[in-house]
Amino acid sequence: MNYRSIAELNSEVRQLAHDLPSDIDLVVGIPRSGLLAANLLCLNLNVPMTDVDGLCEGRLLATGYRYDETSTFSDVDRVLVIDDSVDSGREMTNTRRRLDEHDFPFDVEYAAVYISAEGYQYVDHWGEVVGKPRVFEWNLMHHPMLKNCCVDIDGVLCRDPTRRENDDGENYREFVTTVEPKILPTERVGWLVTCRLEKYRDLTEEWLDAHGVEYDNLVMMDLPSKEVRRARGNHAEYKANVYKSTGANLFIESSHNQAVQISERTGKPVYCYYSNEMVQPDALARTYDRGNEYLSRLVDNPISFPLRASRYLLTRGQHRMNLLTRRYRDD
Question: Which parts form a coiled-coil structure per UniProt (predicted)?
Answer without folding.
Answer: none
